[in-house]
Amino acid sequence: MASLLGVSLLARTAITADVMALTMYVVLGLDMSYAAAGGVAAALTAGVALGGPLLGRMIDWRGVRAVLLVTVVVQVGFWLSVPILPYGILLGAAFVAGLLMVPAQSVTRQAIAAMTTPGQRRAAFALESVQGELSYIVGPAVVIVGAAKISPDVMAWGVGAAIAAGGAGIALLNPPVRAGDEADAGAAGRPPRREWLGARMIAVLTMALGATTLLSGVDLAIVATLQAAGQVSWAAGVVVVFGVASVAGGLMYGALPRPLPTWLLLGLLGLVTIPAGLAHDWRWLCVAVVGVGLLTAPTLSMVADAVSRLAPAGVRGEATGLQSSAQSAGFALGSPIAGLAIDLSAPAGGFAAAGLAGLAAALTGCLLSRRPPARTPSPPAQRPSTVPPLTPTS
């Protein structure tokens, strides 16, 4: 587990910085507008969102190592060619690269579900969420500094090299994605989607979408608030405070004896986000985002835990891919939603819109998760259900 988390951190830090690397290359390397850079970033993000379930299904079918090696080769080819591609071709290539992005996060989550006992799983997923927060703190910042001080071309190559090295490292470890008692899940055949993609799974995916919509909106609202106060240079400091608070929240939550329901964590996250708009300078904003940060990693870890419990072993890759797609879609939606609220009102409107999006997803998840699971036509004696029960705290 330690080796997997270490190598996965390298890959995830680079993957977190890939959008920033392309943005800096288009703006500084090609001397084009931020709108043009946004087009490349959107193409990459769309590819990641669509490719998650596809790669997950390939992992279920062909195994971890084969999928990782294919995606590593694609990433090497893409990032090596970035500095020589004209803008039009770069758009299409970015979409393909996103479609076949190294599934480091998905594989790590599947391995955690396979390598831990139910009693260990919550703490392990909390640690995985902390890993994600560390990657968000480090990756984009390193790329921005490197692109400004060295070269955007070199940073693009560096990001590609780190993604490839991380993916190759995970392939070398070849972590199990099924526990010992699940080894025959693939041979037994894939259960129909109606057996596992029911109301409870949709509830979890909705909350995954809502959580990242909220976080993306908060990022934009922070920048807008500091720009209105003439303190944009402090944005990086506020984001670091936000990330450190999330790391602390994840560690504390993983050590708690009992978990909280996912919908409750997301609802609390939405509630503490709305009043953050009352802050009007960087000092008060640092204080305001601490509460948001403390609930971020716990919420994301409980989403991952719930997906692992609801997904049968034979389709865990596809289910984890759907979770990654839902979170990618949330990151794509959050900024436009918060941006529209900011344009129509004030920077505080961005925090309000982000918090309300989280509350709406929490309410939807709560209602859907309380629905009884659908019954299968086959009696239990002949065909046991492949969907593990969702505990009340998930």
From TrEMBL:
Composition-biased stretches (Pro residues): 374-394
Transmembrane portions of the chain: 32-51, 63-81, 87-104, 125-148, 154-173, 202-226, 232-253, 260-276, 348-368
SUPFAM superfamilies on file: MFS general substrate transporter
Gene3D superfamilies, A to Z: MFS general substrate transporter like domains (1.20.1250.20)
Pfam families per UniProt: MFS_1
Residues covered by region (Disordered): 371-394
Alphabetical list of InterPro entries matching this protein: MFS (IPR011701), MFS_trans_sf (IPR036259)
Single GO MF descriptor: transmembrane transporter activity
Keyword entries, A-Z: Membrane, Transmembrane, Transmembrane helix
Keyword Membrane: yes
Name of the protein in question: MFS transporter
